[in-house]
């Protein structure tokens, strides 16, 4: 059974701990570098990415996190956590740093005012059964991805024929614009736990 940490600086930590336990992982909060060293994988929760970024620097976990990502530790980021995993961000605060690791550009608060929060049925590639209920809260979307990034889910754009990328995977890194931890449907967490088990094999 893998031990999966949840970065517990800010955001919806508790909901992820519950979802990971339901997906048969041992879950624990991670605030410091010493705690990060003890987990097999990490979830970066939803919350506020500028605050999370500041706190990660303040707590001295930003560089250890980057080192573990470079070393192949599986990480799953939701919403603000997706922003933290992006190599580039648009509409971020000027000095906002990310952990990075996924070759993508993510736009913060992309769905805009009239759509501050909404739900959408998501066809998530690789998951069996009914669509996933995507809960979006001041969510980012993925503006562009590099060649090594697999797109796992999209939603139709509100203003035209395009679609917006809302879930991606690059090797050991997974990110969603939406919050499966708020729905009671643990399939996305189970998908991540399988990624972690594969990485540990
Ligand atoms: N808008 C937030 C940010 O920029 C993300 C919102 C969320 O995580 N629900 O960090």
From TrEMBL:
Where L-glutamine is bound, by residue?
47-49, 108, 137-138
Catalytic site residues?
A: 79 (nucleophile), 179 (charge relay system), 181 (charge relay system)
Q: What is its EC number?
A: 4.3.3.6, 3.5.1.2
Record's InterPro entries?
Class_I_gatase-like, PdxT/SNO, PdxT/SNO_CS
Domain of life from the UniProt record? Bacteria
Q: What keywords tag this UniProt record?
A: Glutamine amidotransferase, Hydrolase, Lyase, Pyridoxal phosphate
Could you confirm whether the keyword Lipid biosynthesis appears in this record? no
Tell me what reaction this enzyme catalyses: L-glutamine + H2O = L-glutamate + NH4(+); aldehydo-D-ribose 5-phosphate + D-glyceraldehyde 3-phosphate + L-glutamine = pyridoxal 5'-phosphate + L-glutamate + phosphate + 3 H2O + H(+)
Its pathway, per UniProt, is: Cofactor biosynthesis; pyridoxal 5'-phosphate biosynthesis
PROSITE patterns, per the entry: GATASE_COBBQ, GATASE_TYPE_1, PDXT_SNO_1, PDXT_SNO_2
Q: Specify whether Thylakoid is a keyword of the entry.
A: no
- Function as written in the Swiss-Prot or TrEMBL entry: Catalyzes the hydrolysis of glutamine to glutamate and ammonia as part of the biosynthesis of pyridoxal 5'-phosphate. The resulting ammonia molecule is channeled to the active site of PdxS.
Q: Which family does it belong to?
A: Belongs to the glutaminase PdxT/SNO family.
Its subunit composition reads: In the presence of PdxS, forms a dodecamer of heterodimers. Only shows activity in the heterodimer.
NCBIfam families from the xrefs? PLP_synth_Pdx2 (TIGR03800)
Descriptive protein name: Pyridoxal 5'-phosphate synthase subunit PdxT
Q: Which species expresses this protein natively? A: Kitasatospora arboriphila
Gene name in the database record: pdxT
């Amino acid at each position: 059974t893998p031990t999966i940490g949840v970065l517990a600086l800010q955001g919806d930590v508790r909901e992820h701990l519950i979802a990971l336990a339901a997906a048969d992982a041992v879950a624990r909060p991670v605030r410091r570098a010493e705690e990060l060293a003890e987990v097999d994988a990490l979830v970066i929760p939803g919350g506020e990415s500028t605050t999370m970024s500041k706190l990660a620097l303040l707590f001295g976990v930003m560089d250890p996190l980057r080192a573990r990502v470079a070393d192949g530790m599986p990480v799953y980021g939701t919403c603000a956590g997706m922003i933290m995993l992006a190599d580039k961000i648009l509409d971020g605060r000027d000095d906002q740093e990310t952990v990075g690791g996924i070759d993508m550009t993510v736009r913060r608060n992309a769905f805009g005012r009239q759509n501050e929060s909404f739900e959408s049925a998501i066809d998530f590639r690789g998951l069996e059964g009914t669509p996933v209920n995507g809960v979006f809260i001041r969510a980012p979307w993925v503006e562009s991805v590099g060649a090594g990034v697999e797109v796992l889910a999209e939603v139709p754009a509100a203003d035209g024929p395009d679609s917006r990328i809302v879930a991606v995977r690059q090797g050991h890194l997974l990110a969603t614009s939406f919050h499966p931890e708020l729905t009671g449907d643990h399939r996305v967490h189970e998908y991540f736990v399988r990624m972690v088990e594969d990485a540990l094999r």
